[in-house]
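// run 5 | inverse folding | seed 20
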């Protein structure tokens, strides 16, 4: 009897919320279990095949998920080619790649279960598989996102930038419902992949008012960086972001950041703030917590949280694109 009452109460509230249009269904693990049971394994197959062919691909796909989620939510908005206004042309998305793998997986999925699997979900699944392929944590990915109706370059103006201060980086993450811990853990994604010298030149040669390198770079590391990216060298030359272990997903990135071996300026700045610094320290036994936290477990918590940013689950706010690069 009591259960009946609770069930009725929940039903009434749900109807009320649907009528008001305020309910946005939640994502869930295995959203396609009935409608397209092989969706995840199909995406995984494309990721693995592409990664075996080109070891840079896992990093492309992990980064793509971040850049998708931070503009308009995780809704595949970055994938659309709608001319000069395309979001993907934004300066803040410079160097983002992996679009072709998403499109290849989509083509196959449209063949197997047409009109069922969203591009935004393919991006999220591919990022999960990219982490696993790089020997990172294996986690369950939430799905059920719809693809957005908007792609507009000016909406990407607020992407976190490699030159942002730590205050601004924190603010941009707060604006997406992410906290300092998420900022640290998600920056930990830089445990795989590479950067162009372009993003390092000022840090190496023009950081201080009169010129000169960022003093936070470990003096043992500075000559190596300068050799990779000499003053008039090729700004497109690429070097691993995570010194020594650039192809393996591990907590070395946080140790490198702690020791002045950060390659990206935004990563180095995580040591400028007492809160983010303390979070990094906690992974190396410098914390008053009784149990030392796990980088990998905490990364999973944060990336699942990132995957929920601004998601659209109702057909009023999104669609299942037939082709990821264009609206239906
Ligand atoms: C905190 C703010 C962040 C800033 C300022 C930032 C900045 C950058 C920059 C400048 C690059 C080099 C791009 C290139 O040379 O092509 C890069 C690469 C990368 N970023 Fe971030 N990033 C941030 C957060 C994230 C997050 C949250 C993720 C994923 C969860 C991520 C994943 C990656 C990956 C995997 C690469 C390597 C890409 C490749 O190898 O082509 N980043 N990031
Ligand atoms: C793109 O977004 C900007 C800023 O919100 C807006 O002013 C502009 O009209 C949008 N352009 C299109 C074509 O929707
Ligand atoms: C750890 O110590 C800091 C200050 O030293 C304090 O603010 C924080 O609450 C402590 N955390 C725990 C889990 O005890």
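// decoded
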């Amino acid at each position: 009897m009591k259960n009946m009452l609770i069930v009725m109460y929940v039903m009434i509230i749900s109807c009320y919320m649907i009528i008001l249009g305020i309910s946005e269904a939640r994502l869930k693990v295995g959203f396609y279990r009935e409608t397209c049971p092989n969706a995840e394994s199909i995406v995984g197959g494309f990721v693995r095949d592409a990664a075996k062919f080109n070891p840079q691909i896992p990093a492309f796909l992990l980064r793509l998920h971040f850049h998708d989620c931070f503009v308009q939510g995780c809704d595949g908005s970055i994938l659309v080619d709608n001319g000069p206004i395309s979001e993907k042309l934004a300066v803040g998305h410079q160097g983002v790649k992996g679009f072709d793998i998403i499109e290849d997986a989509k083509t196959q999925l449209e063949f197997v279960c047409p009109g069922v699997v969203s591009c935004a979900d393919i991006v999220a699944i591919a990022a999960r598989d990219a982490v696993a392929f790089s020997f990172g944590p294996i986690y369950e990915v939430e799905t059920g996102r719809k693809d957005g109706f908007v792609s507009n370059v000016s909406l990407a103006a607020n992407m976190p930038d490699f030159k942002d201060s730590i205050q601004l980086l924190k603010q941009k993450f707060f604006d997406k419902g992410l906290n300092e811990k998420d900022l640290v853990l998600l920056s930990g994604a830089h445990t795989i992949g590479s950067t162009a010298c372009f993003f390092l030149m000022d840090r190496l040669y023009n950081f201080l008012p009169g010129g000169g390198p960022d003093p936070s770079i470990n003096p043992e590391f500075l000559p190596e960086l300068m050799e990779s990216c000499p003053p008039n060298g090729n700004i497109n030359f690429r070097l691993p972001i995570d010194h020594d272990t650039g192809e393996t997903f591990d907590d070395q990135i946080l140790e490198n950041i702690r020791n002045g071996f950060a390659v990206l300026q935004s990563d180095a700045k995580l040591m400028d703030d007492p809160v983010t610094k303390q979070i990094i320290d906690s992974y190396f036994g410098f914390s008053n917590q009784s149990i030392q936290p796990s980088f990998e477990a905490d990364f999973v918590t944060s990336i699942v949280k990132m995957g929920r940013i601004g998601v659209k689950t109702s057909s009023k706010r999104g669609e299942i694109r037939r082709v990821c690069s264009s609206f239906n």
